[in-house]
Amino acid sequence: MEKTAVTDIPLIESIYKRWSPRIFAETPVSNEHLRQILEAARWAPSCFNAQPWSFIVGTQENPETFEKLSECLMPGNKDWAAKASFLILAFTELNFSHNGKPNRDASHDVGLALGNLLNQSTMLGLQAHLMAGFSVESARELFGIPETHATVTMLALGYQVDLEAIPEELRERELAPRTRKPLSEIVFSGSNNEPFFTN
After folding, report:
1. 24-161, superfamily in CATH?
2. CA distance linking residue 60 with residue 184, whole number of Å
3. For 114-151, what is each residue's pLDDT tens digit?
4. Are 195 and 188 within 8 A, CB to CB?
């Protein structure tokens, strides 16, 4: 099943094919693909090349870590995300390692790494769903994340299911069209909020 975005102009495949499913196939994801996805994240740009991001990965084949990550999720997310092949917790170092000063771009940089991860996942036929609905306190406690780091997001990763495999109660939500604000609402010229693109 594909859920391609209807874009105003052509985009690369990994953007228009990426979406956030809430139900995944039971097909296991190979370690080779997982390594490729995380290698893509590793090569993201970052301020001062600090690379402040870190990831904790749980797989269905590594149930101890997977279950600990599941425990961090809010009930509404745990119901579906615990069936994905992988759960990943992303966190980031808040200070530069080379001078100890605050890195105001730390969350931005881990976002770039996650963007690379999503692009690579899509090109491998996988999909990921990022989640803010998790307990930061539980993640800190269960994984010993220090106060020098911020937990940013969790994501579920796996293969999409076939249309026929989506339960009826989830089908409308899963098949709803993807939408975004038009460029005229987010790109401006000057300080008076005049749209940069007029058509």
Report:
1. NADH Oxidase (3.40.109.10)
2. 44
3. 999 999 999 999 999 999 999 999 999 999 999 999 99
4. yes
